[in-house]
Amino acid sequence: MPVGPITTSPNLNLSRPQDVGQKPRYLLSLVQNRTGFGNNVQYHFFRITVGQALLHNRTIVMVPFFNNGASGWGYNKDSMREFEHTFDTESLNMLLPITTMVEFRQQCSHGVQIALQDEKDTYFYESSIQFFESAYNINVPSVEELYPTSEIIPLLNSDVQCVALFHTYLDPKKRLPLTLSDSTYFMVNKHLLPAFGIQRTSKLILQEMCSGEPYLAVHYRNRTGEMCMYSERISHLCDDLLDENDKNANMLVNKIYKLWKERQFSCIYVAHPSWSTKFSYLLGQRIPSARVVNAHVIMQLGIDELDIYRKDNYFLSLLEQEICFHADLFIGWDISYWDKTIFERRQIYQKESVTFGRLLDTSERRLEQGWKAIMHAEYDAIKSN
């Protein structure tokens, strides 16, 4: 696996006092290997799994994550990132017992019982099953052996030692058996913090960025960008949608400039994928360019720890999320799980956040509809092959 940022030495409390004498019951999060289920979708499903482990007194497995985002499609073993390079293990361990994949494999070598979020949606399980066996080195059941949706909660409550949840849907209405209460989800988000190295580097940056004064952060993501760049199957849908994105970018810049001026922020941090540099350029036409900061700018700071972020977009993405989290005001898309991760953390500490939908009214809905059209076209293309 790639080397990650500095982490704390894991101080794992694998057998809490209330668990002494009890045989640990494990819970593993599995996410289907499919286009569109990027890093933050994996984190989102892991949060749900943590919540279920908390509710059913199970030990959560620190599953590795895959760089299945703008940098490349499809999970593969070479892109696996260690859990402790993504999240703070000590903070999570304060909430519930945790264990490593090594321990999980040792205790569950006999096999894992898997519950499917929707037994009608087995296509991606069948296409992912061999990958799970290879990447995790565990025996997983066939489709016929999966637990149906109606038996998820009984399975979690049972004495079965090794259980995994295979997540398929983002729509909350389609994952009702796993829906968490607001209070449980709040507790999970409060303890699932970025890795120590991410937190430390962001603090070093914020000491120098914007002279330590209040700043506005924006995440601009051309949601059609990934698909239109990486998939020839749906290129015929892209031209009109990309033109509309350019028009909306200009409207967004005008709205953000007005807000920046009214609130008198010292500068603005813009997080964006590599193909969306035009948005920073447009902002620089309205706001003094010296006050528009992005990843390229912070990489010029004389901070030794930044070297790993220059080389790896997975870790750079986590770092930019932390910078956006600390902003005095954050603006992002409510249809992006990259942004949802930030919105939910900021809500815990009552930090102010605004969605582009509130700035542009119906425009965001049009963008969302266009993005969904591309996603469905890509999904159909995959299944037809």
Describe the structure.
By secondary structure, the chain is an alpha/beta fold. It contains 16 helices and 12 strands. The strands form 3 sheets. It has a 5-stranded parallel beta sheet with strand order 5-2-1-7-6. Strands 10-9-8-11-12 form a 5-stranded parallel beta sheet, sandwiched between helices. Strand 11 (329-332), helix 14 and strand 12 (352-355) form a beta-alpha-beta unit. The radius of gyration is 21 Å and the shape is globular. It starts with 25 loop residues before the first strand and ends with a helix.
Number of strands: 12
Largest β sheet strand count, sense and barrel closure: 5 strands, parallel
Rough outline: globular
Backbone structural class: alpha/beta
Query: For the CA atoms, what is the radius of gyration?
Result: 21 Å
Oligomer: single chain
Keywords:
globular, 45% helix, 385 residues, 5-stranded parallel beta sheet, alpha/beta
Show the helix and strand layout:
Blueprint (H helix, E strand, L loop, with lengths): L25 E6 L7 H17 L3 E3 L3 E2 L13 E2 L7 H5 L4 E2 L1 H7 L5 E4 L6 H14 L15 H6 L4 E6 L14 H10 L4 H13 L6 E5 L5 H6 L7 H26 L3 E5 L5 H10 L5 E2 L1 H4 L8 H5 L1 H13 L3 E4 L4 H12 L3 E4 H5 L2 H22 L1
Parallel strand pairs: 1-2, 1-7, 2-5, 6-7, 8-9, 8-11, 9-10, 11-12
Antiparallel strand pairs: 3-4
Helix pairs in contact: 1-6, 7-13, 9-10, 9-16, 13-14
Nutshell version of this structure?
By secondary structure, this protein is α/β, with parallel strands linked by helices. Helix content is 45%, strand content 12%. The longest helix has 26 residues, at 238-263.
